[in-house]
Predict the structure of Diguanylate cyclase.
Amino acid sequence: EIKRTGRGNTLLFSKELVEEKERHLIIAQRLKHAVPANEMHLAFQPLVHADDFSLHSYEVLLRWDNPILGRVSPEEFIPIAEDIGEIVRIGEYVLDTALSTYTEELGRDSHVKLALNISLRQLVVPGFADFILGYLEKYGLSARSLILEVTETIFDARNQNQIIAVLNSLHAKGIEVHIDDFGTGYSSLSRLHEMPISALKIDKSFVQQIDDQRCAIIEGSVMIAERFGVHTVAEGVETVEQARLLHAIGVTYLQGYLFGKPKPHFAEVTVHSDFLLWTKDKQSRAS
Ligand code: C2E
Ligand code: MG
Ligand code: MG
Ligand code: MG
C-alpha cells in the first residue's frame, strides 16, 4: 500500500504504513495476554461539581504496561481491542477491578459515583445489563454508584432498538448513562430523546484551546443538554480560567488535571489556591 503525499516521500510513507500495521498486529497479539499477565491496571480521575469543586465521581481509565511495548495509550489499544473483540474480556477485568477497588477504598456506603467507559461492542453483547447488575451484586454495591460512559457511536449503530432497550433496563435500576466525547462523532442525534441519558460529556478538544468557535460549541451543547433536561460534563480542564468560563456557561461537572490526574488510587481533589480566591470573590459579589 502506498500513500502519496508528495514527490520523493512515497517510499518513506509506505514504510511507515508497514510499520504501523506491524505495530497494530503486535498490539493485537499481546493484548490477549495483557490481563492474565497482570500488565493492566486502573487509574481513577475525579469529576467535581462546577459550583464548588466538590467531589462528584471518579472516572475509571485503563492503563497498560507491556514489557516490550512499554506504556501503550488506551487511545491506541482500545480501538484494536474493539476490532479483535478482546474488549469484552478486558471490560470484565475493568468492571471487576474497579468495583473491588471502590468497595475496599471508599466502602459500600459511599455516595461517590464511579464512571466506566463502555465500548459499543460490549453494550451489544446479549445479557449485558445482567452482567453489570451481577457484578454490582457481587460487591453489594448500589446501582446508583455507577455511571456508564458510552460514545456517540451508539447513534450510528444498526441495532438502535437493542441499544435503547439495554440502556433503559440499566437506567431503570438507577445506573446513569453519559454520552462521552460529545460533539466529536458527527452523529445523528435524532434518537437522543429516546435514550435514557443523564449527561453529555463535552470532549476535551473543545475545552483545551477555547476560542470563539469552540466556545459556541460548548454553549450549544449546554443548551441541548438543558432542553433535554440533562447535565453536562467538561473534560480536560487544566486551568482556573477554563473552569471559570465553563462554570459561567453553565456546565454542571468538571474534570481535568486542575482537579486531579488519573491516579492508581482514589486520590483527593487537588484544590487550587486560585480557586479559593475565586469562591471568595463570588461570595462577596453575591452578598
Ligand atoms: P475518555 O473517556 O474521553 O477519557 C478522557 C481522557 O482525557 C483520558 O485519557 C484522560 O486521562 C484524559 N484527560 C483527563 N483530564 C485531562 C486534562 O486535563 N488534560 C489532558 N491533556 N488530558 C486529560 P486516557 O486515559 O488516555 O484515555 C483515552 C481514552 O481511552 C478514553 O477517553 C476512553 O475513550 C478510552 N478508555 C480508557 N479506559 C477505557 C476502558 O476501560 N474501556 C474503554 N472502552 N475505553 C477506555
Ligand atoms: Mg470517558
Ligand atoms: Mg471523554
Ligand atoms: Mg475524550
Observations:
- The two ends are 67 Å apart (CA to CA).
- Residues 160 and 185 are 16 Å apart (CA to CA).
- Residues 181, 203-204, 235 surround magnesium ion (ligand 4) (CB under 6 Å).
